[in-house]
Amino acid sequence: MTASTHRLDIVPVVIGGDIGAYALAREFNEAIGAKPILINTGFIGAISHSKILTTHTVKTLDDTCLLEALTQLSISAAEKTLLLVANTDQLIELLERIHNQLPSNVVCPIPSWEAFNAVCDKAIFAQLCEAHGLAVPATEVVHLAGTSSIAPTALSFPVIAKPAESASYYTTLIKGFKKVYYINKQSELDTLWTDLRKSGFDGDFLVQHLIGGDDTYMDSITIYMGTDGKAQLLGAAQVLLEDHAPAMLGNPVAMVIREKPELWTKIEHMLQSINYRGFANFDIKRDPVDGTEYFLDCNPRIGRNSYYTCAGGVNPMQILISDVIDGMAQSVQIANQPALYTLVPLSLMRKYIRDPQLMDEVNRLISTNKVVNPQHNPADKGAKRLLDVFLTESNQIRKFAKYYPEATDTSF
Predict the structure, then answer these.
(1) pTM of this prediction?
(2) Spatial separation of the C-alpha atoms in residues 388 and 49, rounded to whole Å
């Protein structure tokens, strides 16, 4: 893609230093020809050696340091508007805290505190889904605060265990705990509760019925709720492969574009019911037994793999700019052009596809050059950066050999 309009009045600012942050920077660059500023404590090589962006390093990503950095950038930007985005739950939570203290020329489109909490608390999210005809797995909420004994689960094993709120779990995650646990028996669950309490975690955890199926039974849906309260962007994809490293478990690394009109309508109505504004990304798993689509999570942000909507034909940052900067009324745009989106080598992705029809579709997309990888940017071909991308993709092969050498019927 090339920039449709060069804008000198906007300075995009992205908080983050990973491939998801690079994808957002590329989207801004292609939308308006601007060089986004990325703020983080450190950056992957593909960002450090990029020609399409600039970086601003901070000592730590807390309220004070981020406000100082944004104030400094806002002064440097003079009469321009800083358009600020982030793409992890903990960063969105941080922006919620400092939103009212941002400089006057900083625009930060995030949901309200109330809407943020409604979708981030998985117990409340489950109630919202059920009220709008969206299926959720059978779930129990476990309170880890205090020292009271925790009753055994009533669900049959194996089960899934995961934090009720991702943002508040981040400090525990970086201590070496997992995003999601696959549990075979009660003693494993009891050990997890003990270890979490010893670590200092006192939040809630969910125990859920395991929905079977390998990674290809996962779907992703992305939506942008405009300032007019209506959906202005709709996207969906079927996952081909997910990351299986413990701290990254569940992040898609390869997908094909899909359409989900019935789910899109229900999701829009659900988000309208809580006055949600901004981007949201949903994780869904289809039951291989009866095809039921179970909603697992809602991320209050566009998602790490936001560039898949570009693969589908719609640049989400262009939608965002038209809405929050230009105030333009716009009808919904659907990212539905056939495409294969990937962050990993094609040979690695192909290894895990077991459905012959799905493999045929993937091969057709490859043979017709409908493959999109946000790291492979024609406008960003510096030798050092290309080496960084090559090394990153080579490392993916080693990671999968270590954590997920063969596809399984549960994806665990």
Answers:
(1) 0.94
(2) 8
